[in-house]
TrEMBL record:
Subcellular localization: Cell membrane; Membrane
Organism expressing this protein natively: Physcomitrium patens
PROSITE patterns documented for this protein: AMMONIUM_TRANSP (PS01219)
Gene3D superfamilies in UniProt: Ammonium transporter AmtB like domains
Top-rank lineage group of the source organism: Eukaryota
One Gene Ontology molecular-function label: ammonium channel activity
Protein name: Ammonium transporter
Pfam families given in the database record: Ammonium_transp
PANTHER family: AMMONIUM TRANSPORTER
């Protein structure tokens, strides 16, 4: 997944900022690994003696791991989710952000902001969790909020953090002209964008089906988690495929061209949307999810251009917008038997509104959207404002025009003439054209 983000980001920016964006993706993983080890995992899943629905408070630095609840492998799996959220944010603020700002926000996001949300939804004592089994209080509205693999926890958190960063530092120089018209800043390599998309596509099969954690768990008869894993892979595939095709024809209708870059973002938007419901909806429903995600992405991109919001990777529109749609989709189309198989509970446990399950699950999903939006806004918004106030957020206009690879990272990613071209003298028989000098 991280390699996919790196290639997608590299292809979506101009060539003069390629080294910068790839370095930030590497450091999202590295800095995120340290901060998630020291603080993040404890905030997300540490329960201690007194379970807390808001924040974890045990297992600092993986103390007392392994234990009855999780092993080292669980930490590694959750770290991958955490750095994915940071990678999403780096795309929104690409091409004009100081390097120190990347280090600060990445550490805070993976070490504190993201873990709190994952505690709410994925810990057994989280106040929003659909698997809440310990601590005071019961399931929210009798169902809890369902986010199976992170449409809200990962994609909304990363997308909203990126939104506030990009909004506070403003658009790239020249992105909008004096009349307010949008100028086309295309990424330098469609090849890298397509490569990154397929790497992410493959990685999503680890995120979504992998979120079952255990495969040998029987339900009834010949059914078990192994059936859910396969179904989840199918729903993921269909949602992404439908979103990509819908985006292709939608953009053709609106803009009059077939654009592979739009299709790639459409595919990823479909994946971001289905991630919440991938395990609790049928394959036919995932097609509806992907179709809706494509139009959510197109609509938010239109709004972004109208309000002069600049996001080089459409990351906030894609991950926050499609992620929110995915959370709502759970409340509409989650099926009763799938919800009970995965989350257990009584026979009257709420499920999707359109599937006859009433509106309680949908209400929990709406609360989840509002809670995540509020939390990221009150944490990452002030952080980016502070970086802006202390002039640590945006690079100078001179550096931005020249490109950060040249001014901040010692050289460009693509070297066409490195100064080594020269004539080498050697003796050959019958070589009259070059006089014994061959350029290399």
């Amino acid at each position: 997944m991280q390699l996919g983000f790196a290639m997608l980001c590299a292809g979506s920016v101009r060539a003069k900022n390629t080294m910068n964006i790839m370095l930030t993706n590497v450091l999202d993983a590295a800095c995120g690994g340290i901060s998630y080890y020291v603080f993040g995992f404890a905030f997300a899943f540490g329960q201690g003696g007194k379970p807390n629905g808001f924040i974890g408070h045990a297992n600092w630095g993986l103390q007392n791991v392994p234990n009855a609840s999780f092993d080292y492998s669980f930490f590694l799996f959750q770290w991958a989710f955490a750095i994915a959220a940071a990678g999403i944010t780096s795309g929104s603020i690409a091409e004009r952000t100081q390097f120190v700002a990347y280090l600060v926000y990445s550490s805070v996001l993976t070490g504190f902001v993201y873990p709190i949300v994952s505690h709410w939804l994925w810990s057994t004592d989280g106040w929003l969790s659909a698997t809440k089994s310990v601590g005071p209080g019961g399931l929210l509205f009798g169902s809890g909020a369902i986010d199976f693999a992170g449409s809200g926890v990962v994609h909304m958190v990363g997308g909203l953090a990126g939104f506030w960063g990009a909004f506070i530092e403003g658009p790239r120089i020249g992105r909008f002209d004096k009349s307010g018209n949008s100028m086309n800043f295309r990424g330098h390599s469609a090849t890298l964008v397509v490569l990154g998309t397929f790497l992410l596509w493959f990685g999503w099969y680890g995120f979504n089906p992998g979120s079952f954690l255990k495969i040998l768990v029987p339900y009834e008869g010949v059914k078990g988690n192994w059936s859910g894993v396969g179904r989840t892979a199918v729903t993921t595939t269909l949602a992404g495929s439908t979103a990509g095709v819908t985006t292709l024809f939608g953009k053709r209708l609106l803009d009059g061209h077939w654009n592979v870059l739009d299709v790639c973002n459409g595919v990823l938007g479909g994946f971001a949307a289905i991630t919440a419901s991938c395990a609790v909806v049928s394959p036919w429903a995932s097609i509806i999810c992907g179709f809706g995600a494509a139009w959510v992405l197109i609509g938010f991109n239109r709004l972004a251009a109208r309000f002069h919001y600049d996001d080089p990777l459409e990351a906030a529109q894609l991950h926050a917008g499609c992620g929110a749609w995915g959370l709502l989709f759970v409340g509409l189309f989650a099926e009763k038997n799938y919800v009970q198989q995965i989350y257990g509970g009584n026979a009257d446990r709420p499920f999707g509104l359109f599937m006859g399950g009433g509106g309680r699950l949908l209400a929990a999903q709406i609360v989840q959207i509002l809670a995540i939006t509020g939390w990221v806004t009150v944490t990452m918004g002030p952080l980016f404002l502070a970086l802006h106030r202390f002039r640590l957020l945006r690079i100078s206009s001179e550096d931005e025009i020249a490109g950060m690879d040249l001014t901040r990272h010692g050289g460009t990613a693509y070297i066409h003439n490195d100064g080594s071209e020269q004539l080498v003298h050697f003796t050959t028989k019958g070589d009259k054209n070059h006089n014994g000098k061959i350029p290399i």
